Amino acid sequence: MNKPSNHKHKKQFGQNFLNNPSVIAHIIDTISPRPEQHLVEIGPGEAALTEPLLDRVNHLDIIEIDRDLIGPLTQRFKDHPSFHLHNADALRFDYRQLVKQKGETLRMVGNLPYNISSPLMFHLLEQSDIIEDMHFMLQKEVVERLTAEPGRKAFGRLSVMIQYACQTEYLFTVGPENFTPPPKVDSAIVRLIPYASPPFKADNFADFAALVKQAFSQKRKTLRNTLKNWLNSEQIELCQIDPGLRAEALSVEDFVHLANLYSQVKPQKDG
Fold this sequence. Notes:
About 35% of the residues lie in helices and about 20% in strands.
């Protein structure tokens, strides 16, 4: 059972802490950690997930930016051999330093505030070769975007970029009443499993990322218009794609084909 806390919840860190033991147990069971696995929790808050995770694994690294929480967390778990606390910004943290053995991978867990969720996932994907999987609680709207299929309203740039790198799965919804203080929106749990090798490989990842961003820059316009300075209609058709479609109608594979063609035909800079 979670202990009551006098910690003042900080708006700048987007702090909404889980308070429902049955939801917490469901999350832990969904993650299904094993003793020998190396887990990393981002933003433990008042340790709703930390305590049950420590009971299940032999090594848990904690990343917490709020200095006011460091003392209480340290005092509470200092004698637990699995507990390793880092007072750091998760957006800048080098997760590779946590890997101590060749071939070891990390399992990432966290209840993430809305304002860092997207940049954090991109930061983690830059280190995805050391990550086995990620289980995050996010705003429901963000999880819908991460897992959306082409043609759905929620499908956008974030969907394409994350699904290029990961298998994504919407697990379950968590209502506001399960948090202190209650947020104004529903939350949801997502599972992300980085691909060892993407099923559709971009020849130049920077070109791929830039083209996807451009394609979604004006969502109501067709590819013929949004990509007119990148590929013409005939070139888009070479990829078996209708230039009259909007970006949200395309699959990740379609975007890879477009980006790979662009990498071949784009003007080359001198030198």
